[in-house]
Amino acid sequence: xxxxxxxxxxxxxxxxxxxxxxxxxxxxxxxxxxxxxxxxxxxxxxxxxxxxxxxxxxxxxxxxxxxxxxxxxxxxxxxxxxxxxxxxxxxxxxxxxxxxxxxxxxxxxxxxxxxxxxxxxxxxxxxxxxxxxxxxxxxxxxxxxxxxxxxxxxxxxxxxxxxxxxxxxxxxxxxxxxxxxxxxxxxxxxxxxxxxxxxxxxxxxxxxxxxxxxxxxxxxxxxxxxxxxxxxxxxxxxxxxxxxxxxxxxxxxxxxxxxxxxxxxxxxxxxxxxxxxxxxxxx
Length: 283
Fold this sequence. Notes:
Elements: E1 4-7, H1 13-24, E2 28-33, H2 40-46, E3 50-54, H3 60-74, E4 79-82, H4 97-125, E5 128-133, H5 146-166, E6 171-178, H6 202-217, H7 223-235, E7 242-245, H8 250-266, H9 268-275
Parallel strand pairs: 1-2, 1-4, 2-3, 4-5, 5-6, 6-7
């Protein structure tokens, strides 16, 4: 049975590949972007199977209207893909308030609006699958990625809570954590940029150079292959809550989690000491 998808950030990159993969196998897709001209080719090829929707995820009213239009157009919604987002690069000291607010408005609040708009329809159906695009950056933290990490760590927690809230409605949740898919640019994509700081700093500049070297060495995955992997997830009767897409980050994540467990174990005596013990009358 064909599925109906609602995909944000569909004009390019992974989002575009997800849309194309779904359409190519006979599914129907409501594809959203700030400019729908990028969907003209898909409309010509797939006709009514694709519904282009002009939408900015930071506009809550527009999100709710777009989800409603998609449901009315196709009659149901099966797969909700929260893909829209970008990466803000910069040291925490140099981030402006607007940098942070813009990052969270798009990556976090935008995802929440889509979820809130879609859930009433999915609950009524008693089925559906919410796919949240996170990142390996939702599991680890690196210098100059503070704003982006905030947003992705928040999405990890949000969707883990969501999965427990909606399971009894028959709704599934999967967080996809890509690593090494160079498909999107951030609003400040150059890690060597100096942000808003008045004077260059040699330590921050060194961090920028290391970040540029690190990102340049990461293996670049094929978005079309990632889309085929996503099809397997949405077709699964028991999909994972979390799944990494791409090579390179798994060994790093293994080591980071091992280090965290070791640190907690090494300091367990202090943890117990901090707990203390209250007399009954003090409680």
